[in-house]
Structures are given as structure tokens and as C-alpha cells.
Amino acid sequence: MFPTCRVSFNGLKADSRYAVLMDIVPVDNKRYRYAYHRSCWLVAGKADPPAPARLYIHPDSPFTGEQLRKQVVSFEKVKLTNNDMDRHGHLVLNSMHKYQPRIHLVKRPDSGTAKQIVDLEKEPHKTFVFPEAIFTAVTAYQNQLSWIYAGHCSLEYILWDSQIDK
Q1: pLDDT at 11
Q2: β-strand 98-108 against 91-92: which pairing, if any?
Q3: CATH value at residue 72
Q4: What is the pLDDT of residue 141?
Q5: Distances (CA, A) of 74 to 9, 42, 134, 164
Q6: Is residue 86 one of the residues assigned to a domain?
Q7: What's residue 116's pLDDT?
Q8: Which of 96, 101, 110, 99 is nearest to 138 (CA)?
Q9: Distance (Å, rounded) from C-alpha 81 to C-alpha 52?
């Protein structure tokens, strides 16, 4: 995911343990398209059925409150896909839909082996939402040059050939 989500925390109990999770939820029930001539996103219809909801547990979890106070937690390893049959734990999104990343701070037991987080609502947690992080998921970037490459190879050759001669 680019740009990478990075968060920091303060005000936590130093010796308590916490898991840091991310999920990405739809912002609305619309599908979008990009209008190049206007350089903006436009509503293109009703949203596709939502992708299966998944939680991404930060691989360094659990953290102590002291660790979270001293470091920035980066979600640089989170992977996104549009394949709803994904079996690799990637977060599943629908292309051309708007999404909101959310960060969840989950209190974990202070001792012993903590059970896996299956249902976030059954865990003591706090959710953080950053409206400035809303984005539109895309599977491929399109521009006029890639359009030329994709379907007009002879024109591509002519363009490159004419540039070489000059």
C-alpha cells in the first residue's frame, strides 16, 4: 500500500500489552471513474458488493505501552488485493471504490498466551480514523501514453522510431 500508514501512540500504560491492527472499510456505496479531462474522480454508479472484511494484525504485535510510546508503527508490509478468493491474508478491496483505513489498538492480557483476535468487538479496543487517509483503490494507472502502448503497437513503434531519428 502506498503511501504507507504510520502511527504513533502516547498515554498508554508502560507495562500493558497491545496489539495494533488495521482494516480498510468502504467510505460509501458508490463506484468511481477518473475523468482525465477534468482531473477528478466522478461517481460512476452503485458500488459492487463489498469485499470480505479482514483485519491485518501488525506482525510485531503485541507491543508494550512503552514500546509504542518510543516508536512509530508502520504498516509498510500490508498487502492489498482485488481478489476476494485471496488466501494470503491480504486486505481485499474493490477497484474504483473509496476506502478509509482504520487503526485499532487492542488491549491484550498482561501475562500468558493471548488468544487470537477473531472478533474485534469482543476485545477491549480503541479505533482511530484519519479522514485525510481516504483513497480510491485502483488496479492499474491509466494515462494517454499507456493507452498508446496497450492497444496501438504500430503507433508506439512510429513514435519511438521518429524520436530516435531526431
Answers
A1: 93
A2: unpaired
A3: 2.60.40.820
A4: 60
A5: 12, 31, 17, 45
A6: yes
A7: 80
A8: 96
A9: 11
C-alpha grid cell for residue 137? Answer: 483503490
Cα angle for residues 25, 118, 7 (degrees, 5° grid): 50
φ/ψ region of 96 (left if φ > 0, alpha if ψ in -120 to 50, else beta) reads left
Work out how many domains the chain is built from and give that number: 1
What is the full DSSP assignment across 47-107? PPPPPPP--EE-TT-SEEHHHHHHS-EE-TT--EES-TT--S-PEE--TT-EEEEEEEEEE
Mean pLDDT by 10 residues, the chain (166 residues): 86 94 95 89 94 90 94 93 88 93 91 72 90 88 50 42 38
- Dig out the grid coordinates for 7 from the structure: 502511527
User: Helix-strand-coil percent breakdown of the chain, rounded to 5?
Assistant: 20, 30, 50
Range of the domain at 102: 6-158
pLDDT of residue 51: 83
pTM: 0.79
Name the residue type at position 12.
L
Residue in this structure with the C-alpha cell 483485519, named with its chain if needed: 55
